[in-house]
Amino acid sequence: MESLFILIPIAIVFVIIAVSIFFWAVRSGQYEDLDTEARRILFDEDEAAKRADSAGPHTSNIKRSNANNPSSTNSDTTTKKSDADD
Fold first, then answer.
1. pTM of this prediction?
2. How many angstroms separate the CA atoms of 2 and 8, rounded?
């Protein structure tokens, strides 16, 4: 019973803190645009490709060369497997 005299004020403090953080988030605009984040989850690959293209020609050429030649990454693993079999 005596622990309730300690736990109830602590719970009230936590509620006050949570409510104040919620009102701060509303005032600062955290809940203004909820649709953009929902769409970003669905279309993140398209945006990542756009960011890679805008990063510079060197980085986009590397990614394109690896995408066009997937065997280049697999050739190392196949030689390692064949070495391990011997």
1. 0.42
2. 11
